Amino acid sequence: MSEIEKPAAAADAQVPNPDAPVPAYSWYALGVLVLVYVLNFVDRQILSILANDIKADLGVDDAFLGFLYGTAFAIFYSLFGIPLGKLADSWHRVRLMTIGLGLWSIMTALSGFAKNAAMLSGARVGVGIGEATASPSAYSLISDWFPARLRATALAIYSSGLYVGGGISLVIGGLIVENWNAAYPDGGPLGLAGWQAAFIAVGLPGILLAIWVLTLKEPVRGLIDGMPSKPVERPFRGFFEELLQIIPPFTFVGAARRSAAALAFNVLGFVGFFVAAWLITTLVQSGQGFIMGAIAARVPILDVAISDQWFLLAIGYYSIFSWASALRSRDAETFALTWGSPAFLCTILGYGTVAFLSYATSYWGAPYGERVFEISKSELGLLLGAPAAVTGFLGVVLGGRVADWLFTKMPAGRLYVVLFGLLAPVPVIWVMFTTEDRTVFLIMAAIAQLFASSALGGAAATSQSLVLPRMRGVATATFFLATTLVGLALGPYLAGLVSAKAGEDLGLGMLSLLWIAPIGVVLLFFAFKLVPEAQERVLAMGQGGEVRA
Q1: What is the pLDDT of residue 370?
Q2: d(C-alpha 534, C-alpha 513), whole Å
Q3: Would you say 487 and 406 are in contact if contact means Cβ atoms under 8 Å apart?
Q4: Which residue among 318, 325, 412, 492 is the one 20 to 30 A from 364 at the CA level?
Q5: pTM assigned to the model
């Protein structure tokens, strides 16, 4: 019987002792979710080891590769994450994750049949939509399987799938491409190249994993925190309402339904974002600042990538603006604890700056090693991917444990680990992309992964502690807006853009990103000051207090 089908009396079930041992089933279910997240990042990160082959076969440049990995995926991942996060707060989370896993696995396999940049971009959009189901569902489930004292640890273990999957993707992708190309130098069955075969090979197993995920039991929402939530009678109503509030041009209809003033404000936001995109595109293409117009003239595809990048970002940022405006009038309580909470915003944006550097480093590491040090794909898998999987796993788990320990000492203690994850990788990245020694490059890549990964568990747990149980899916989706629209959509693309403009200099492209660190420090400083009071406010609400938007 699903949570939706359970009688309301389930909400009155006996509240578990928060200090009691965690049931074995919770650890088993967490293990299954880790496998899902591993596959999630295998399917996402495999673009890194395939980047140089895609570049050669499809005739694109580094700016487009950054756009493909970052923005094309991130915008749809983040936009659909909002309504899917709402659905995770009201419907059967296990079923939602199962559907999403099946979708992104199929779209990953279809990426292998792409014959041009547009087809590959379209497939990656589908991957982004499917993967948007995973973390809102998983974060919410984990928060109902594990008590607060172990939540950062559990979320960190789940998040380790990010680093394990990213590392394994280099191993798998490198082996498949090299062996396929050796066996079929002129193209294999259906004329597929090695990079296309790799997409198909990693996409298909997800369908089998989806069947396994479907067998997991759905926990009672909020019971473990003593705040059980009653089942939502019409769970899909909220999903479709969110969809209408965030997908243009339906956003205008949603705003008009609220009031004429809301419609005017919405239209003003739409115009503002697109004027900003036009100005940025014009500035970049006209050769202002470090941008050299002559290089853009020699690389026509770059002009397309620049235009797509900023106008697609304008769609994303406008859509989020529209959704947040609607949320304020439709669910003032949730708005107050997310968009209306400086503590929440500083926390997620502070972590977004960590993601900005981390995504760019992990994506461009393999292409850089292949170009500069002439390391083969199979060697990259073993020497770059495998160590990164290990250090990423260790970093995120140890970081989660330290974050939980610090949380017992001070309310904002977890944020110290986030600050470490931002600052510690900076000198490592500098050495990694300036050294002339191959061994030093590989060692620095592993250390950068170790340090950056430590921040995720603490940041995720802090954001979850700032909202009520019924809001966790939306809070998770909002958390990932920062990692995607700040980190994933900007970091890899800007590094690729600078590289393309500087004559394919990936080292310079990566070093150009280090300006983000001071911004992250400022955001986290304010989070340290604001989080303790915000957490007390949430506890008061859970015990019957009220909040004003």
Answers
A1: 93
A2: 32
A3: no
A4: 318
A5: 0.81
